[in-house]
Amino acid sequence: MPLAPDIEKLVKTLALKNAIEHQGKAQFDAIISKVAGSRPDMRASIKAVIPEIKTAVQAINAMPLDAQKAMLEEIAPGELEAKKQATAEQQHFPPLEGAVMGQVVTRFPPEPNGYPHIGHAKAAIIDEEYARMYNGKLILRFDDTNPLKEKLEYYDAIREGLEWLGVKQDMTKNTSDDMALLHDYGKKLVQTGGAYVCTCRQETVRDLRGKGLPCECRRDPATSLDRLARMFDGSYGQNEAIIRFKGDMADQNTAMRDPALFRILEGDHPKLGSRIRVWPTYDFAAPVEDSLDGVTHAMRTKEYELRNALYFAVLDRLGLRKPAMIEFSRLEFEGVPVSKRKIRPLIDDGIIKEWDDPRLPTLSAFRRRGFVPEAIRRFVLSLGITLAETKPPFESLEAFNRKVIDPISMRLFFVRDPVELVVEGADERQVTLKNHPTDASLGTRSVRAGGRFYIAGDDAGNMKEGDEVRLIELYNIKVQRVERGDGRVKSVHASMGGAEIRQSMQKIQWIAKDDIVDFKVMIPKELYIGDKYNTNSLEIALGCAESFVSTLKPDARVQFVRFGFCRIDGSNTAILTHR
Ligand code: ATP
Ligand code: MG
User: What is the pTM of this model?
Assistant: First the structure.
């Protein structure tokens, strides 16, 4: 069966783009999943044309790269330009000091204590971009040294999130893989006097740290050795002893006032169970792991700034190699806290039920809302590496997404708070509506329009007698009567209007009365107002849609005309991606 012309064009465009990205060779599997992704309506029938798609991809792979570029420019003008722009965006990433081609190693070190969010995407993409820029390596390292907070579910969620984003690590490991090694380094530090075991109560530690004064435990190395053995043989319980770095209790930088390097935590670790009790803190594990993993350029957000001195002091004292440290600003949006610390309580308290709730900034929520990974990457690249603490407008992320989904989203009709419209004297006609204004490959649909419709409550509310209004892609009507009751419009009666489509005319979407399905759209709003949870953060728009909409599978992207881009979420439900 030969490919339909629109599918052939889609396959060629996707194959050319993919080939140009991969040294002239498109990957067949990637093309198939992209075809299925952009044409949800084809999923069922795609199997039948796999041989034809294969032949088309092979033909493209047989072409030299230059010819592929020329052909792409011919069949999909502008695509190459978009590629170039992405490269320009990468110039927001200044060269790394001391970087040697082929030898740069970066790492993304999430703690598996929650679902990954768009801030993690920023960090991971920066780590990956630099690794690629220098033909180096990206390590994904689960920073899992707190058995009280970490769960297997979160390791998986992080891995899936990165995979969806298209971040490809060259290696994956866990900090907990190295517990024996970390213990050895910790013990060595105490044995050589670089650290000591402190058994003061937590409040005492905090209090003396604030005053810049040492405690008794700091003075006596012999006691420390004895206590060290007892920390490891199980004599101390949780919070009864910590290993502290011997810094300077009077240092201006409070991070240097003998911070904790190890503490006792009694919990069930997702990888190690309960057999480890002495756990390193972030301040110890991060530098030691970075150094041992061969990381050349360690990147982290600016809030760790004060801890940089400690990071290097730990490595100095252990005689370990020091990576370069690069900082960038945290990503936050107005009204949307991008931090597990802020998201977690909402989940724990049952205010929000799922990690992919569309109001959250988690990657699974962005995905469910209809954001595409490519847009997130372009957005992150456009931010670049800066220390500026400005919150980028959420609209900027939306703009990147709109650019990607606008050409592939079907235009369909949804009317919110429907009101009946009766057009007197209308003939009954079968109309063919385009699914996309410019891309014919998205097809058409056929609707039978008599004289009865539903229109959106807002549109009906704005109508008055004598108005001439256009029903999009159908005909003009002249409003004769607007029936109101209980403070709302109950129905609108109209006659047929003229033939001219004037610029100034209101143009509205409509649904034929015999062609409706009940439909609902979830509209995510700001999660927080100031630092308070917004109880109206999820708005539900009730209405009806053309019956065609109920044939779409979850995951399909649509643009409801004059409403917004949406992703179909389940039966007769969609989520607003953005306007
Ligand atoms: P959270 O506040 O969400 O718990 P975290 O820093 O504790 O953040 P980790 O899982 O430890 O979360 O973070 C892994 C990496 O992701 C770190 O390098 C961190 O700097 C980075 N990161 C976390 N949140 C953001 C953010 N909002 N913007 C940019 N990078 C972030
Ligand atoms: Mg953390």
Answer: 0.84
